[in-house]
Design a protein that fits this description.
157 residues, alpha/beta, 7-stranded mixed beta sheet
Length: 157
């Protein structure tokens, strides 16, 4: 349980676990998570054909009346090692827009670390502005993650 009193659903843990476990027939690139009531739950599990751009649109659809609703995502990002091999790493993205309510900001911020720890994900990117919710921003922020991995050279998508 987080400091906010929000719990993490078993479905959330299982969905991210499957994604991290690379079960081929159930290949997912991302999982979207949201606080529903007093629990973090899965709002969408990607299909193998879904892209990073599809995920961004689902998180911040300009045509949706709830476009500035905060949420979390766990997404696979490919990290290139100095050997030239690619290593897929799950990345935790928190989307807490500047213009959401103070209560939402506080609830999501106080839930974020507990959720990230429970899902056992080290790499994290926080986005609070629509301009930040893009692949280039995520890759730029993840360059720092590469510095913590001795074999990491650059990021690739």
């Amino acid at each position: 349980m987080s400091h906010s009193g929000i719990t993490i659903s078993q479905k959330c843990i299982e969905a991210v676990g499957k994604m991290k476990g690379k079960i081929v027939q159930d290949s997912k690139r991302f999982v979207l998570l949201k606080i529903v009531g007093d629990e973090v739950d899965v709002t969408y599990e990607s299909k193998p054909t879904d892209t990073f751009e599809d995920m961004i649109k689902m998180m911040n659809d300009p045509d949706c009346e709830k476009k500035h609703e905060p949420c979390f995502a766990v997404v696979d990002v490919d990290l290139r090692a100095t050997s030239g091999a690619y290593n897929t790493q799950p990345v935790f993205i928190s989307w807490i827009p500047d213009d959401c309510s103070i209560k939402q900001k506080m609830t999501y911020a106080s839930t974020k670390e507990a959720l990230k720890a429970k899902l056992d994900i080290r790499a994290q990117v926080h986005c609070s502005d629509s301009a930040e919710l893009c692949l280039d921003f995520v890759l730029e922020k993840l360059k720092d993650v590469g510095k913590h991995h001795p074999d990491a050279k650059s990021l690739h998508h």
